[in-house]
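Appendix B, record 7
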Amino acid sequence: MKRLKISALVAGAVFAASGIGHAFAADAKPAAAVERVAEFTGAMPTGVTVTETGRIFVNFPKWGDDVKFSVAEVVNGKTVAYPDAAFNQENADPAKGLISVQSVVADGQGRVWILDTAAPGFGEPKAGGAKLVAVDLKTNKVVKTVVFPADVILPTTYVNDMRFDFRVGSEGVAYVTDSSIKGPGGLIVLDLGTGKALRRLSGSPLTSPEKGFAARVEGKPLASTGPDGKSQPFNVASDGIALSGDGKTLYFSALSARTLYSVPTALLRDPAVTDAQIAKAVKNLGKKGASDGLEADAAGNVYGGDYEHNAIRKLSADGKWSTIAQGPDIVWPDTLSIGPDGYLYFTANQLNRQAGFNNGKDLRQQPYRLLRVKIGTAPAPTK
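C-alpha cells (predicted):
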C-alpha cells in the first residue's frame, strides 16, 4: 500500500457548509459551499500552495508520522516527491537536503519556495539546516538556497510560514514567523539577496500566545499532555502570516490567539527601527477567531482559518469580518493559498486529534483533506 493516496474529488464532491454554531452571530449570509480537492492517507499534511499555472504542492512535517518525503506535487491524482526523492532526504550538509518542511509557497514568479524548519518533532533546529529553498517550476531544479543566519534561529525557534515581496531588495525579501512552543515567538525578515536577517518583535506580547487563551476544538479543551502526564495549555506563538497586495502591510497572528494584527513592512525591514517603535505602529484588526494559517488577496481582503469553529473567516477591505465557509470537513484548517482559478485552497489535517492532545490516543480519522472555497479574487501580487 502506498504511503499517501490522493483521490481527485473536485467534480461532484461539493457539500453545503453546515450550520455549526460559532461566536460570530453577526454573520447573516450563509457560508459558501466547500469542495473537496484531494484526500491523503499516511502522513498528515500542513502546507499547500497553488502556483500561477495551477500546479498544487503539499508538504508533510516530521511530527511522528512515517514521512517518506516532506514535499510533494499532486500529479494526476498522485503525490510525487518534489523536486525529487533524493533532495527529500537529509544530507551530511544540512543545507543540501530537506530535514522537516513546514510550508511551501509559490511566489508568483515561476518558483515554489520550501521552508525547512530543520526541527523534527519541534526539537532544537539542526545547525545550518533551517533554510529557504527555491525550486524553478520550469526545470524543477533547486535554483537558490538561503540558510537562516544563526543569530535569528534560537534553540527554541520553529520557522513556520512565509510570504515574499520582490519589489524590495536586490532579490526580494521573505517574511517568516517563528512559532516557538518553548521560547519567544517573533517575525524574521530575510533579505534573499544578501542572506542577512532581522528578528522582529521577539518575545513581544504581539507575537506570543494571548494571556488566558484556552482553545476549544470539536467541543473540548485543546491541551497537551506534559511529561508528568498532566494537562498543559497549548501555547504556540506567531504562526499565520499574510502580505498585502502592495507589499506595504504584513498581517500576523499567534496560533494560540484570536486577534489579527498588521504592521508596516518598511519598519520591519529597517534595522534602525527598534522593536518598541514597531510595536507602537502595530494595528489591532479585531477578533478573527483562532487561526493557524492566513492569506491575503489582490482585492485587499484577508482570510484566516478558525479552527475552533470548523470555519474560514474573511476580513474585507472595508474592515468587516464574515464567515465564508464552515462545515464538518474543515477539521483544523491549516495553511491557506489562493489559486489562479479564484479559489481559496486549504488543508484540513485534524491536528487537534493527535495523540498528544488526547491522552496518548491518536483520534485522527484518515483521510486528511485538501479543500477549497470560491472567493472570486486573485492572489496578492508579489512584484
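Remarks on this record: The chain is about 5% helix and 40% strand. The chain has one domain: 14-374.
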